[in-house]
Design a protein that fits this description.
This protein is mainly α. It folds into 2 domains: about 1-40, no CATH class; about 40-90, no CATH class. About 40% of the residues lie in helices and about 5% in strands. It is built from 5 helices and 2 strands. A two-stranded antiparallel ribbon has the order 1-2. β1 (about 15-20) and β2 (about 20-25) form a beta hairpin.
Length: about 90
């Protein structure tokens, strides 16, 4: 299913619609709009988290890949604070 959602494989029959978008999406602008609404959430942290990233980088990277300036955004910093991390370590 993931391969179909990300356009790595085409359906053998019929078509797939997600939030009103017919897949695969060829327009970069349309794909970005859809990616802002849905995300893959990996279930295995040992293989999905980069051990060289800080926690802050893990929080920021997905947002910045969607064009959201996360280092100046309040949301990641608010979550950082809620988790009890020392604010001096925020980038």
């Amino acid at each position: 299913m993931i391969e179909l959602l990300f356009g790595l494989r085409a359906p053998q029959e019929g078509r797939i619609k997600v939030l009103g978008h017919t897949l695969p999406i060829t327009s970069g602008k349309e794909r970005l709009a859809l990616c802002k609404q849905i995300q893959l959430i990996p279930q295995e942290p040992h293989t999905s988290l980069n051990p060289y990233y800080t926690v802050a980088q893990v929080l920021i990277e997905p947002l910045e890949s969607l064009g959201i300036e996360a280092t100046t955004s309040k949301k990641p910093k608010e979550h950082w604070k809620k988790l009890g991390f020392d604010q001096s370590y925020w980038p």
